[in-house]
Amino acid sequence: METMIKVFSGNANRPLAEGIARSLKRPLGDATVAAFSDGEVNVKIDENVRGNDVFVIQPTNSPASNIIELLVMLDAVRRASPRRVTAVIPYFGYARQDRKDQPRVAITAKLMANLISTAGADRILTMDLHSPQIQGFFDIPFDHLFASPVFIDHLKTRLPSDFVVVAPDIGSVKMARAYAQRLGAGLALVDKRRPRADEIEVMNIIGDVADRNVVIFDDIISTGSTLVKAAAAIKKQGAKKIFAAVTHAVFAPDTSERIQDSELEELVVTDTIHHPPGSLSSKITVLSVGTLLGEAIRRIHEEESLSSLFI
Ligand code: R5P
Known about the structure:
Layout: E1 5-9, H1 14-23, E2 31-35, E3 41-45, E4 53-57, H2 65-78, E5 84-89, H3 108-119, E6 123-127, E7 142-145, H4 148-158, E8 163-167, H5 173-183, E9 186-196, E10 199-206, E11 213-221, H6 225-236, E12 242-249, H7 255-260, E13 266-270, E14 284-287, H8 290-302
Parallel strand pairs: 1-4, 4-5, 5-6, 6-7, 8-9, 8-11, 11-12, 12-13, 13-14
Antiparallel strand pairs: 2-3, 9-10
Bound molecules: ribose-5-phosphate.
């Protein structure tokens, strides 16, 4: 008997889940994902999933109830006897605390891995992890996608000729180098320091940006300080137009306004995190990764290669 795909969504990003379901040409599964009046999350899977290949879609950005919804959904599905359960986490939150770099701090990325595995996931599908080694925090199969095909298609139509790719900090160099290779461009680097968790200082630009157009790549934008300060420093060095592409639009309060007032020409983000239409600055373009995630789900189900999506 053929195993059927079933796709369910929590409340964190239903528009993306609907896009994924559309690309798979099937409706979202029927589930009640609600809360009791005291706020406790309450989930019921409202259709049979026995023997099915189940995908639960939920990014784990704030509020923390998004994480609880994911865990409770995985538990509810697991107890309903599917053949396999995949946690589809378009944005994997709490990933930035991925090592014990100071005394008495948590490693939240590992804590998340423990919680998700315990709740019942058989495998994980995510995108542009803050650090790829987080895959090793799991002992189950892990598929790590990149938003690069979506960004490159868009940027090819937008970028002026003669541009250089910039990594906004040391941690982004590997990602930026991969984009520079794909786009056939040179690479420069921002020497950034973070004196406090939500504060950054730009020290130097390493590489030549004078009289060049620039595109900055990063995985996360939160307060926007990294991008805004990098763009200001790059402009000061004589750059022409400055573009940025960042996968996860986490967006602390006022980030959108900071982008509007910045030296950036355009910031391209994806819809791994939902923002209501019209709520972001006119400089921000949101691209959907729904089709890419849908194709990855189809390939996982059909047991086809995922890496060939990125060649
Ligand atoms: C840092 O390692 C990340 O790649 C991002 O650069 C950072 O999280 C962005 O944060 P913010 O927008 O608050 O500067």
